[in-house]
Amino acid sequence: MLSHAFSPWHxxxxxxxxxxxxxxxxxxxFIFLAALTFAxxxxxxxxxxxSNAAILAEASRLVEAQRLPEAREPLENLLRRxxxxxxxxxxxxxxxxxxxxxDQTIALLEPWIESHPDNVRLLGLYAGACMLRAxxxxxxxRALRLARRGRDLMERAVVLDPTDIAYREGLVDFYRQAPxxxxxxxAKARAHADAIAAIDPVRGAAWQxxxxxxxxxxxxxxAACDAALRxxxxxxxxxxxLGKTVSESGLRLNDGEAALRRCLAAVPRPSEPSHAGxxxxxxxxxxxxxxxxxxxxxxxxSLRLEPQFNRPAEAMARLDK
Length: 321
Description:
The chain is an all-alpha fold. The chain has 15 helices and no strands. Helix 3 packs parallel to helix 5.
C-alpha cells in the first residue's frame, strides 16, 4: 500500500520521490558544463587579449628602435585576427610609412579617417603619408589630389591640437617644397615656423633655417642652424638642416657630415626627415668630396631603407653617366 501512497511533493506517488533528485542532478550537470565552457572561452579571450597587448608592446619597442621590418609581420598577423585594433593600425602605418611603403600606408589608414575624424595621431600619420607620396609621384592628377588632401587634413590636425608642433612641422616642410599648384607657399611655411617658434624657440629657429635654405640664403641658414644647436645640441631638425645646407652648398663639409651622422644615432619622430633622407644627404656630401664610392654606398643605403625614394635613385643614375 505504501507504493500507492502520495509524496508531499506535487502529489506524486511515493515511488517517484527519486525523480526530482535525478532531474536536479541533470540540471546541475548542464549548468556546470555551460559554466565550464564559458570559463574556458573567457580564459581564451583573456589570453588572446594579453597576447595582443604583448605583441603591441613589442612592436612599439621595435618601431622606436628603428627595427621596422621586424615589427611588420607581427602587426600584420595581429590585424588579421583583430582588424579593428586601432593601435595596431597606427603602429603598422608608421612601419609602412618609414619603410617607404606609402601607398600601403594610405590604403591602411584611409578607411579609418571617416570613422575617426578627430583622432589627431591618425590624421597626422595619414596626412603626412599623402603629402610625401605626392612628392614621390611628382606631377599628375593623383599627386595633386594627395597633396591637397594631405595638406587639408594636416591643417585640421593643427586645429585639433595647436600645441603639438609635429603637425605644424609637417606643414612647414610641405609648404616650402610643394609647387604652388599643389598648395606650396613660403609665406605659409614661415607662418607655421613662426608659430612653432612661439612654442619652442629652438625648434622654430631650426625650421626658419630650413626656409632660409629654400630662399638660397646659405650663410643665414648656416648661422641659424649654429644658433639652434648652441641652444640645443641634439635637436634633430637643426642637425639635419645643417647637414642639408652643407650638402647643397659644399661649405663646411666636415660639420655637415658630423651633424648628419648624429642624426643616424637618433630616432626621428614622424614629422622629422627619415634616415633615408639622412643617407641621401651624406651621399651629396661625398659627391662634393669627389668620393664617388662613398656617395654610391650612401645612396644605396638610402634606397634600401626607402625603395620608393626617388632622389637617391636619380643620384645613382647621375653617377652612372
